[in-house]
Predict the structure of Response regulator.
Amino acid sequence: MEAINILVVDDDPVTRALLSKRLSKAAYAVDTAETGVAAVEKLQRQCYDVVLTDLMMPGGIDGIGVLEAAKEHHLKTEVILITAHGTISNAIVAMKKGATDYLQKPINFDELILRLEKIQNWRHLLKNAADLRMAMDITEQTACETIQDLEIAVAELQERISAMRDTLERSDLSADQRIDMALKC
């Protein structure tokens, strides 16, 4: 399976470095942004499979703003929000705006990796489904063309059989003449 690329957004340099190191070690392609503004700029230039963002960040764009920008620029980007101040209402707001998941600090890395693997598997299944749909479309098109060709061939053969029958039923010709003419149809 192809590795997914992740944008880690957190104003805390220690959290950002720790996430980057652990995710890189788990074979994910990782990019980082120290603010919501920097994240939005990166999202405008590049598509990420997953954005892992802190909910509360200074600088005018928080995690919800990053979520909105990610979905605006790349609808298929999965966003996981992380916060030390987790509340059910924050989670509900995030999920309504398109967040894939919601984690609380301190981050359980095993749980995070499992969630990323789930996203990766889901993306792989979607790709396989799309590939199957394309193969089915091609097969259906080929089948339609084959049926059409067969219908034309059958119609031509029916015309030849009808002409042969008409020739063989003629009474004004000898049997040998009818056979010779029927074979030329």
In short: Residues 5-107 form a domain with the Rossmann fold fold (CATH 3.40.50.2300). Residues 109-168 form the longest helix (60 residues). The two ends are 60 Å apart (CA to CA).
